[in-house]
Amino acid sequence: MPAALHRAPPLSVRAWINTPPLTLEALRGKVVMLHVFQLHCPACVELATPQAQRVHQGFSSGGVVVLGLHSVFERHDEADAAALDRYVRQQGLTFPIGIDEPDGEGGIPLTMRAYQLDGTPSTVLVDAAGRLRMKRLGHLGDLELGVALGRLLHEAEHSAERAH
Length: 164
Known about the structure:
Layout: E1 6-7, E2 13-17, E3 31-37, H1 42-58, E4 64-70, H2 81-91, E5 97-100, H3 110-114, E6 122-126, E7 131-137, H4 142-163
Parallel strand pairs: 3-4, 4-5
Antiparallel strand pairs: 1-7, 2-5, 3-6, 6-7
């Protein structure tokens, strides 16, 4: 996991599903897994989004917060908020999902642009101090993702111990 230790950019979210509005600043102290997806992305639907739901359920007691980010950079007319809401209900997704703010010109949405993401699915990990620690295009295997999350949780626990 490359240690790019700069502050994660803020999220530019138009609306939230399954939660009141969230910010990375408000989640400081927790590891954040940002799952960036689109409705019409086969790898998102088949692999990455179900994995994000499993991580959300597996860490329901805390430590890791999963945030979905619906970031549409193609087929805008087929992936509106109503279609996303139907998808979330049909798939039984319970983690918070933000709708990435469009750029107004049908191009790359604002959060996707700020994180310099190349497509979907993408996984972004933010450590408990709010620093960007991983960004990866494509589906991560469960083992690789688990190791990365475990490292960040371990760091967070040791930082909290040192603070006391």
